[in-house]
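Worked example 3. Consider a protein that binds EPZ.
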Amino acid sequence: MDKFLIKGGKALRGAVAISGAKNSALPAMAAALLTADKVVVRNVPKVRDLVTMSKLLAFMDAKVSVAAVPASDYEIQAPKLNHAEAPYELVRTMRASILTLGPLMARVGVARVSLPGGCAIGARPVDLHLKALEQMGRGRQLKGAHIVFEKITVTGTENILMAAALAEGETVLENAAREPEVTDLVGMLRKMGAEICGEGTSTLRIRGVKELHGTEHTVIPDRIEAGTFLIAGAITGGDLTIHNCMPAHLGAVIAKLQQARVRIDVVDATTARVRGAEKLVAADVTTEEYPGFATDMQAQYMALATQAEDTSVITETIFENRYLHASEMVRMGANISINGREAVVRGPAQLTGTTVQASDLRASAGLVLAGLVASGETLIDRVYHIDRGYEGIVEKLKAVGAHIERVHAPGS
Ligand code: EPZ
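Given these inputs, the predicted complex is written out as structure tokens:
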């Protein structure tokens, strides 16, 4: 298993370009199953989850090809779906495989998608996806329904959007997710001929159509990668210009970092600049659905909080067990205590490099950030987690001055 070796203490300076959003590219690829025509998805990040999604689509007999240049352009065509099935071997490695359920139900009327199990960050059931699809009926033709989600679910909203696009009649989905990735999917489906309104609000209306057609779609920039680099600039006291991002999608993160006295300038609609604070100060954070502070930024923010003067209280409201990075940060010298959903971080603490274990994608990013500010060497084990969702993170960090290397384990 590969590891990252980081020598901390280097201020990051220069420019970074953000890749396409993993969590937009995944539903966009799944949406290609809704039509027999060719679909081109552009700005797909080169990360493992997208490779897994390609394998899954290929298993269903869709043709998936990646352009030589740029390698972020994917062409998908599914004239006939021969296996309306997502096997456990693939679902096991990527929970987002569940995103094929809605399109398969819409196109074929039946689907077998293995249930994803729990994962490091909590139980993560898919009961709401199933209940909503059940309301739309089974068999060859799904029917529009009035669905009220008990809880806001991002991929659940995406699944229902895709299923309802080809259902008979109108679907009204209340308490829908408002994440930019959902809005991006609506934009793509509309280009395929879907009739949807209400994106960005919590009520979506979808009038089903008989057929969808091919399209070309460029996925939005990854707001979590952008937020991670904002914190990388801030925590190292550096000066980073972040290109190809959408600061408009980072409102809660930017506001919180500014409260912690990080200097952030929104240069234009696709560029932000971050400069380290003279002195970081504590600011409490509660994770929420969009437009609140994203749970996917919580681990990275915790790394920053270890360096802030005074006590920061972090409250995780989305996932029940998303603090596995905290104990690793404590092993590096951080002062963090966890009590249920609350983490109390007392800073600033001098972090010292040691060997730590990555436990999930964003936890790994938090540990990389802690390693960048720690004295001495930090060795991060199990970085396959980070490879699931950050394109070229080692290369991007190196280009702005970080001392970070990927250590290839023998045989990997
Ligand atoms: C999406 O996961 C993202 N994944 C996650 O990204 C992200 O952390 C999460 O949304 C929250 O923003 C993709 O977009 C592919 P949810 P999703 O359904 O859709 C509960 C990353 O690191 N729930 O919005 O699976 C659930 O347990 C990640 O890129 C049910 O109870 O998350 C959680 O507590 C990981 N029943 C809450 O809702 C259900 O049927 C929100 O989860 C569905 C969800």
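Take a moment to read the result before moving on. The mean pLDDT is 95. The CA atoms of residues 73 and 249 lie 23 Å apart.
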